[in-house]
Design a protein that fits this description.
four-stranded mixed beta sheet, elongated
Length: 276
Amino acid sequence: MIDWMVTSSALILLVAALRAVVKGRVSPRLRYALWLVVLARLLVPGTFWESRASVMTPVAVQEAYQAVERIPQAVRTRPDGWVDIVTPGVMTSVREEKALSGETVFYGKDHTKATIESLRRQVGVRNAFLLAWAAGAFGVGLFLLAVNLRFAGRLGKNRRTLEKYRGQWVFEMDGLASPCLFGLFRPGIYLTPQVAADEAAKAHVLAHEYAHFRQGDHIWAALRGACLVVHWYNPLVWLAAYLSRRDCELSCDEGAVRLLGEEHRADYGRTLVGLV
């Protein structure tokens, strides 16, 4: 898990720096696409290949990292009087009498030396950290789920159907903070009454929200939430979610102008300013 956290954090910093360097030189859509690499790293644990250029190379030689890596997955006593020390790929068994005597034992692939009592303490601390991570992930996941279910309930109860725009249902609803695309499997476009009453603003907003749909942002938003659930403890992941959301909006602005036509760029910009 340490490898996952370190490599993910390094990748976020790299993409954030690259994003700042190429700002204004590449299209917002390409800048937004950079975050897909971060998304894949955050959702897929493990390492696909080893490299001396890896960010983990200087970390792996640190004594603290090596000490954590040597902590067994479990230390358990069997009914037959043996104690098993479980590490990845290796299980070491010692007599219970030897374990209780406080004598050092060798375990794992590297034949690490320790007492059973100290190993049990280490496993207890590791399990406490895992429990804290699981509790945090459950809390963040429950919060995000509750917020979205509550919002979905409001939309389903108060929306008014207007029309279809390029195959997507368009709804109007009072009390919306801003227009949005919402829904994971059958997303719809939701407008405020003010936007729905203004034909020019309506055309611009529909193009923007449709650009969200074309980019699959309703799916990426759910995956972003999954990243926050799994990596809730890492502030860089929250920063990545914020920056990727900003790049998402800029990418949609580019897509909306492409859909409307370049001649409508200035009017589209005025609509955005008016909405803000």
